[in-house]
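Open question from group meeting: does this chain pack into something compact, or does most of it stay loose? Before anyone orders reagents, we agreed to write out a predicted structure and look at it together. Recording both the input and the output here so the notebook holds the full record.
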Amino acid sequence: MAKKTTFITLFFGIISIAFLLLSADRSNFIKTGLRDIDINPIDGAEMVWIPGGEFMMGEDRIDTIYDTRPVNKQRVEGFWMYSKEVTNGQFRRFLAAKPEWSPDQIARKYIDSRYLAHWRESQLQSRYPKDDQFPVAYVSWYVAHAYAEWAGVRLPTEAEWEYAARGGEQFKYGKKIFKTGKDMNGYFQNFAHFSLDGRQLECLPVGSFRPNTFGLYDIVGNVIEWCNSRYQPYPYSANDGREAFTSPEEDAELRNLLYKKNNPYHGRLLRGGGFHAYDEYAELYIRCVFRHVFEPGISGTSGGFGFRCAKK
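Structure tokens returned:
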């Protein structure tokens, strides 16, 4: 009888704990270390829930290339975000399902000559390995957008990306304000992999470093990440057209219009620092506020462009 009573007590104790966890607000999962996690069945990516909240977007600093001023208050609704960058392995699954986006079939208007360069150029593979567990690189915005559509998700807005990178705590560098430049510790910065003299060695497998508060890995390191947003000055607004999809033809018209107005900044935004940014550039690139702007058909310059996905 005693054993039966003990079993019943234990059973209802477990049920009570499970009920409390299931009924808890998602923000409590973050605070207690019990993150709300889901798996995308299409590409197998792990997604973590980013609880909604308010934050101050941007930074009053005049030495940025693409202006981060004025600082503006933003409200972000809760959303799911890939905990890691999209990998070569996941991208191969995409190409198998959508061969029209493979290098030998894709329409040239969506890419440049560097598309998936690390898969075919041996001199790049020591820095950007093409193995499945490494982040895919040298991908244009158009291709990243197509991948997201195939996977039933989307690219994050730049407001979502910055909010997630700050970890809900206004972090400046994706974690806390550690030393930067040549004294930077890549492990604590979540910023790629630095040798002792401050120079980065190579891209590393996704998830090689400790995650930030929200459970996001490599959020300001490894590869620079595409956001959905078109570059426009602050304050940010999701309803002013910057989040709308535009075709290569529409982008060409808009680019010509901006050039006529002496506005050289046209393109989609990338966020975070790639591993190739070091020394005097490291402190600039790893800031959560830093905005990179490139034409949506560009796949990479001195480093390859990658991405992670999000959804409501």
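Observations to bring back to the group:
The chain has a mean pLDDT of 80.
The two ends are 50 Å apart (CA to CA).
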